[in-house]
Amino acid sequence: MKVENKDNKGICRLAIVPVRSYPSETSEMVTQLLFGDHYTVLESMNAGRWLKVEINFDEYLGWIDTKQHYPISDSYFNHLNDVNFKICTDVSASLLFNKSPIQILIGSILPISSMELFDMEQQLAFNGESHNMGDSMPFEFVKQIAHKYLNAPYLWGGKTPFGVDCSGFTQMVFKIAGYKLPRDASEQALLGTKVDQLQDAIPGDLCFFGTKTKIVHVGMLLGDDKIIHASGQVRVDGISDQGIHLASTSALTHKLQVIKRVLRN
User: Fold this and answer.
1) Catalytic residue among 79, 229, 245, 254
2) 254 catalytic residue (yes or no)
């Protein structure tokens, strides 16, 4: 069922909302909404209990529980697209929203800017660390953010330090640093400038792994033949022209296919 225009925009006002492949609690989680992520509602199913949404940041599609939907006006939705809001850089932080406490996580978008608060009826107080999400940051900042996810458990569809997949990790680290990456590794591999050889790569370059016809993994170079990536957990391993070598055994775990440069150092 198509959703009427007055109800077709929303924003995440919870710490995390799972986005599923089908309208069911037993369906796999394909990605997540974090506090401040806004989206368009495309349709509803199961007597309105599930909403199909398109996430504005990366145009990813999936289903959310209607009980976790927070409707907003078209004018505020457009305002979100036009303003350089703050993004949380603390692993976890708390805020008061409409006088109610909410725990939020790194990468959450805060309705704080050089402009007035988006809606004076919605009171917000936040005392954590943040920066302007539209500012493109250098590698040292990116590296600092990446290490905040170190040892995060691997979670398919996850985007937080408490569960993240490989492309969710790179997408969030780069988002916090002011860069826009798609959700999936295969799409991220289409961006940036190709680096022909590992010896020509620099810290911050993205490395993609799999086969010549299918990219299935991504990580970020740290320098000194090291890469940070999410495999079992967010970890630092060795890398060579062949691919990723497990730090503990030196076994080759992922075959290198292409290197891309996205950071504007």
Assistant:
1) 229
2) no
